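Exercise 7. Given the encoded structure of a 449-residue chain, write a plausible sequence.
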């Protein structure tokens, strides 16, 4: 969630599938008409003029699309964020820029509307027990957060409230997003986006089930209960419903806060190592992964003795992965680091490459994966001053251009999203440390199962 410092507030959002559909249909029609005009006028322009005109067109679409979708709230905004990670591999850069705008701050919904939701979800007795601040702490695509105080105990809590109607519009929103991308010819012709859309539909449905999120939060608390490096907020079940979650208020700073940035290299490295170690636990031990790892979902709590803690928020996007898939995925990673035969065997099992594939394609994919695991080499890695993301993207684009495009395993979009988020987190911290021994501790153990 983004901090709600903007003065702009929405008085309502379109909750009905019909009204949302009309807005999205208008957006798509406008984009289609503009795209058709671009194609016609481009015929009489030089290549340089075409490029400038196309970029201008895309920037206008980005502004219109992000403004409308930000005010609609809901799954369309979230799906666009997900696709912006995945889209690095097959969308034109200009099109992916449209999707990335959906990660910008979304205006909050006014207190009158949020109060109405709470009064539907709570009994008068529950309502009377809390004193709630009307100004939101943060707002996002699915809901917003308000700080409150439990009158009887004076405990400070946060109240996470889901926007009205967003859970009913997932399927129609995803169809609208796909139609928009088709209209501006953003999708490669031989790409089957349906498996990915189905995966996003399931994940978005889960994210809007707050009862499930509470269960997952408690599961994480049980996993990390004895590990002092992490804090999972306490749940107050007496106030939780399918649309509302009440948690302990946990203070802390974002990783990009100037105070964090001014810490010593050693201290920032330690925070980064703890963050990476948590990722490895999720990936290789629990097979349970919080797949939305943007900076806003974590806080860092400073300790005078240097025993800093990572506060974990937002478990709605947590996904349980099949053990067989994850074991093969671990084998592929281990094989890529060690450059062993395990790599190709696991890649075949996962469906990334096939026995009949051209050797040139297999070699490029091998190079792609070997570069991906570069941070886990034999020396300290500089997570900030590296061009690795750029190099990986360039290889992915080459694969798309030179070989028939196939949809990767549907689980990969969320693993890639997590991996990208972890990389960004460590980059923001300016971390420099040797990560190879950290991951091999898990991979060697995994290989003995």
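Solution.
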């Amino acid at each position: 969630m983004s901090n709600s410092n903007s003065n702009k507030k929405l008085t309502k959002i379109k909750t009905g599938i019909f009204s949302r559909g009309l807005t999205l249909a208008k957006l798509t029609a406008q984009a289609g008409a503009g795209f058709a005009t671009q194609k016609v006028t481009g015929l009489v322009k030089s290549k340089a003029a075409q490029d400038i005109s196309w970029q201008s067109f895309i920037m206008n679409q980005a502004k219109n699309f992000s403004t409308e979708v930000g005010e609609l709230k809901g799954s369309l905004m979230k799906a666009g964020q997900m696709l912006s990670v995945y889209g690095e591999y097959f969308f034109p850069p200009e099109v992916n820029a449209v999707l990335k705008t959906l990660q910008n701050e979304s205006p909050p919904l006014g207190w009158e509307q949020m109060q109405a939701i709470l009064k539907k979800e709570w009994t008068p007795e529950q309502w009377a027990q809390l004193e709630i601040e009307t100004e939101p702490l943060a707002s996002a695509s699915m809901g917003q957060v308000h700080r409150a105080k439990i009158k009887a105990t004076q405990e400070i809590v946060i109240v996470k409230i889901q926007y009205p109607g967003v859970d009913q519009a997932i399927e129609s929103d995803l169809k609208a997003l796909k139609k928009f991308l088709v209209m501006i010819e953003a999708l490669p012709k031989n790409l089957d986006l349906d498996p990915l859309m189905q995966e996003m539909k399931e994940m978005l449905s889960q994210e809007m089930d707050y009862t499930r999120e509470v269960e997952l939060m408690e599961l994480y608390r049980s996993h990390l209960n004895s590990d002092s490096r992490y804090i999972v907020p306490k749940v107050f079940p007496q106030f939780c419903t399918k649309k509302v979650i009440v948690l302990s208020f946990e203070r802390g700073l974002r990783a990009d806060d100037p105070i964090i940035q001014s810490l010593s290299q050693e201290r920032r490295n330690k925070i980064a190592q703890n963050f990476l170690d948590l990722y490895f636990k999720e990936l290789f031990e629990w097979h349970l992964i919080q797949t939305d790892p943007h900076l806003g979902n974590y806080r860092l709590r400073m300790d005078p003795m240097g025993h800093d803690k990572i506060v974990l928020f937002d478990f709605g996007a947590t996904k349980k992965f099949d053990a067989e898939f994850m074991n093969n995925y671990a084998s592929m990673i281990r094989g890529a680091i060690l450059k062993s035969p395990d790599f190709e065997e696991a890649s075949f099992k996962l469906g990334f490459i096939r026995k009949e594939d051209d050797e040139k394609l297999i070699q490029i994919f091998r190079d792609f994966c070997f570069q991906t695991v570069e941070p886990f080499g034999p020396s300290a890695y500089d997570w900030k001053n590296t061009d690795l993301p750029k190099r990986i993207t360039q290889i992915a684009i080459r694969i798309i251009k030179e070989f028939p495009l196939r949809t990767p395993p549907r689980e990969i979009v969320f693993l890639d999203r997590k991996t990208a988020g972890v990389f960004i987190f460590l980059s923001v911290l300016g971390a420099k440390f040797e990560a190879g021994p950290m991951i091999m501790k898990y991979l060697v153990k995994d290989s003995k199962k």
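Remark. Residues 251-449 form one domain. Students should compare their own answers with the one above.
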